[in-house]
Amino acid sequence: MVQHSKPTKILAYxxxxxxxxxxxxxxxxxxxxxxxxxxxxxxxxxxxxxxxVATLVLYHCIKYCYxxxxxxxxxxxxxxxxxxxxxLWQKNSTEFYPWETLFLSKAYDSCxxxxxxxxxxxxxxxxxxxxxxxxxxxxxxIQKIGH
Length: 147
Known about the structure:
The chain is an alpha+beta fold. It has helices spanning about 5-35, 35-40, 45-75, 135-145; strands at about 80, 85-90, 95-100, 105-110, 115, 125-130. The strands form two sheets. The protein has a three-stranded antiparallel β-sheet with strand order 1-2-3, with no helix packed on it. It has a three-stranded antiparallel β-sheet with strand order 4-5-6, with helices on one face.
């Protein structure tokens, strides 16, 4: 069974308490710095460079905030897997998904996370690499769907 242990869940919530405010504050601070009077009066290339940096940071903050919130939403879900596919436990329901329907799943190495997505583009679960049996599951996913 692939699941997040209680200590891992606590760690995930602590990380969220630290990271979520940072994902909102950092782009605001960079934009504020980019448009202060000292920088604003400088060369146009400096302003364009800081604007590009602020845009890039904002993009990554939005992306990682989205991935973190999606992960937290499925943190209590569990899955089991075999040669045929995965069985997903969500609260009181259980569903089976054949490996062939999970080809849209994706690894986010920078987040140490794997998101399981079905052929209808529905996010089923995100699994942190600290989950029980994560490495076995990833090896099977690589074998069955190629990533």
